[in-house]
Model the fold of this input.
Amino acid sequence: MKPIYRILLMAALWGCCAGVFAQEKPQPLSDSLYRSLAATPPMGWNSWNKFGCNVSEKLILEMAEAMAASGMADAGYEYIVIDDCWQVDRDADGNIVPDPERFPSGMKYLADQIHQLGLKFGVYSCAGSYTCQGRPGSKGHQFQDALQYAKWGVDYLKYDWCSNDGQNARAAYQTMSEAIKASGRPIVLSICEWGENKPWEWGEGIGHLWRVTPDIRACYDCVFDWGGVGVLQCIDADAELYPFAGPGHWNDAEMLEVGNGELSWDESVTHFSMWCMLAAPLMSGNDLREMDYKTLQILTNKEVIAVNQDPLGRQAIRFMDMGDREIWAKPLADGEIAVCFMNRGRDEWKLDYNWRDQTMYFARDVNFRKWNYSVRDLWQHKVIGNTKDRLKAVIPAHGVLMVRLAKES
Ligand code: GLA
Done:
């Protein structure tokens, strides 16, 4: 072949290959874009608390449809996350294989259906070699998996810590974080190592939320032999971690059990109110297809959710601890303040509270002697008083009174 033709042929081949590679190689996500995800605590639904390993395409689609139709989406819930057990194997090239019987149309189809409903799609994996249910984990396959998730259209990854083979937690989560950025898709990374390696100290910028507790169970005050805990235990584990929460990086007090198990109305209201005070992610974990009216009322209380989603992103502080009686406060972006009186005890709390005796040292410009604030009950949806007067109320056992204070002009 004449040299000129050889050069032309080489140029054509190069152009062709470059085109193919350009198509294959995703544009990496910038660090600043990655960090900007989850500006407010993520809200969604996760399959684990109610369904465990019993997940399928049918179930997930029904749940997505229920989220869209029930008022949950309208209240701000957006992620539909399949927890453990969707994956069964790796193929000869090491690609993760979803259960073909339970997910017959594949994950891309599922993601597309969920996106068509205006929702976002999440999956679960594990930094170890196996997930907590013994399915293939992502160790050694992080970049391959992240690329695969991106191709499917995944928006959220819950990343667990079973079978971790003694890895360094920070490094393990950093690897998946880099893999997500390299995939080019904005995927929220939920660090799920149960608070064992103090993820609040290193998680910002690596992931967007980190579990600070063992697994929750649908009970108010309980600790199981295998490590499961109740609502109060989750609150206490999160209580002192307020300096670490903020836009893009949240303490995860565990998924919600509202609508599951034996939690009473007051306990469920406490559970939800306190997760909102703590700026904790709100991942519902009940069957959205058959919610009773009360469950829906709790999960979609927009005034309480507004406290959770407040753009300032401050986590509440327990500023008065009187044994079974606690007072929590969360400064909000507009200068207002959310206050939650929480009764842990078995007797009702006859509250008779003098605002003027209190200094909220952590909230700038809050002075009950200098200014008056209206006191709005976020569960009754009405103003119940003013900080110039004493606040009198009866708070049931295991219940709360959650109010929002607005300065009067
Ligand atoms: C761990 C996690 C749970 C759940 C299960 C699934 O226990 O903490 O939230 O994801 O694994 O196996």
The first strand starts at residue 43 and ends at 46. The chain has a mean pLDDT of 94. The chain has two domains: 31-308, 317-407. The domain at 31-308 is CATH 3.20.20.70 (TIM Barrel).
